[in-house]
């Protein structure tokens, strides 16, 4: 019987209401707070631990992958606790409900949400602990707490001379009871928030003492590698296990769900044995598409299905009839790999009472589900130790590499580190989806009267819900995992959050147009996909801002002035736009052989405008300068904001210039940096980042630098040679 999502929910709610009720129950795990007399440790909440030895530990619920959470979130605690950030030791959080990201109901780091979701909770935690310490000291001195103050990790007596260190007060502070809300410090009293400070993890990373996943070393550890089918959906039919098992150092060779695993006493012996593997693959259910087939299928889907309406205002059909002219364009973007500096890896150790995993993961609770799937263990029997991440960009939200390590360790019974080669990391990535955009607009004179945008491509949740749904309900038995995933997809946009991955950045563009029609044609060719830095904003940004530039030229207007007329109702957009053109000296001439391009975009709550100055040099595109104005609300650490925006710009330029994963008969053609290159140091442009002083709540900065730089570069190339490029990557000889 055919059934849509709404009917499914009606039936399931009536026929099996117990399931619908039970999946709302919270998990059983929790963080114990209070004072431990044996150790002299006090945990006032899930984030802080203060000891009698005057140490302060901060449990970091968001992972550190270079985006600055290690420093930024510690600064929030330090500000209200009245202690130098350098005196706080961050520790990566275990899996527990207290550490879930409130936006996603999962313990994951992504979506540029770390500071935004932690801004108030962490400051409150620090303020409450500070107040309890002050109250304890006041009780010792027999004075009013309001007469005491905290400063630099001590509570100071009203006489201004006597003081006590926090460590001396932890046992007494644990007995204090707060009554009412504790006021947070006003901005005028901030010592650390908003100040230009270095990163707390810089020394460990520059001296090699920071432990990434690939650095984990355990006693009696062995090494595993996995040969995966070269085409997604392929299966193992047969392989020469006995021959490979006889090689020096090889401990075992066996099939797992994702391919054939080789385990050896040394990494290179495992690799050498892998080279000797001869696997007969069954491709009967495998993907066989080539890149051209993907886009042919997109165009066919767009022709057959106008798509689900995502935003509709006025009447675009009437605007087309009444306008002077209609402008149309089609934009295409390829699959993109993540190319993290640290390839995928995880270490797992299975024992009868459970499994311990060490991994650079963006979602440790999903990691537990991945490990549980391939063992006889439940999630509560699995401990995830999160390490530093050598880049994430969304790739480490998907836990396939943990699933592999767990499956191998479950068979071997010893600590096993599974490492992906760079070639494996490129060819078996889960990619940023290829997307197609069909745009139409109506103009009356220079006025934009109608806007139509048809987005064609898949949704990421379809690929992600497999482990995400069970992670929300870790108490559920494993036989329900696939059911929970199916329920999550059926209920998407009704009982579960809507998947905006295909449409974000398209439906909330800032331009004032009376007649709007935005649609998504959902089609999925079966190529594995996941989140990629800035997600849907990345491809929609290119389509929206390139088309807007085309419309400005069609209307005979300067691209800056054309945009400015359409965003007069958006003061924050207007400010970053005006600031960036002023800083880039937009109206002044450029050196011969160069041109400027402009783009404006809001993503993850952050407003960004960019001007790119570029040209063609020695037959290649050369980016000389990128000027960026950003409004991300209140800033915790200006240096981190600058670093992240600049990093996003370089990440986006890499995609614009080089990013392209191509398929031939289902097989990825790229393998390493020689054919999937990154921007090199000598290519790096001058980057100027201008931060708007704001009193708004903070928003994210890890991703918003990416979306506008790609169309801004394309717009600059059009201004240079009059040739409009509507597909990526951009070409010097287009």
UniProtKB/TrEMBL annotation:
What protein am I looking at? Isoquinoline 1-oxidoreductase
Q: Which organism is it from?
A: Marinobacter manganoxydans MnI7-9
Query: Aldehyde oxidase/xanthine dehydrogenase a/b hammerhead domain: from which residue to which, for each copy?
Result: 207-285
Q: Read off the InterPro entries from this record.
A: Ald_Oxase/Xan_DH_a/b, AldOxase/xan_DH_MoCoBD1, AldOxase/xan_DH_MoCoBD2, AldOxase/xan_DH_Mopterin-bd_sf, N-heterocyclic_Hydroxylase, OxRdtase_Mopterin-bd_su_IorB, TAT_signal
Question: Which Pfam families does the annotation name?
Answer: MoCoBD_1 (PF02738), MoCoBD_2 (PF20256)
Q: Name one GO molecular function term.
A: oxidoreductase activity
Native organism taxonomy: Bacteria, Pseudomonadati, Pseudomonadota, Gammaproteobacteria, Pseudomonadales
Tell me the domain of life.
Bacteria
- Spell out the coiled coil positions from the record: none
Q: Where is this region: Disordered?
A: 299-319
